[in-house]
Amino acid sequence: MNWTCVPFAELGVQPLYDVLALRSEVFVVEQQCVFLDIDGLDPLTWHLLGHGDDDTLKAYARLIPPGLKAADALIGRVVTAPTARGGGTGRALMAEALAHCERLWPARAVTLHAQAHL
What we know:
The chain has two helices and five strands. With 118 residues, the protein is an alpha+beta fold. It has one domain (2-112): 3-Layer(aba) Sandwich (Aminopeptidase), CATH 3.40.630.30. Strand 4, helix 2 and strand 5 (110-112) form a beta-alpha-beta unit.
């Protein structure tokens, strides 16, 4: 897995399209969780992308700076492509997300920001 963590301004059009497509495929279609994915936070956050050897997006997480939505840094929009599940990709994604949060915001608490099905 090849990992990249960039702010929104450095994301690029194709990577952004791939991120939005994966989030929609998993959250809206697969999990049937209808919500407004484009919530205005993406331009203010960091984006962690995991690409497979074939250069397709396999994993993604959005890293929200401390103070933007909560006092803690937040890891949200955590998603693994259906084709990449069962081999430790999700575990690797979370390890990378935590490492990048520590690098970006040293000594700050980090919280997983996840959806709740009611």
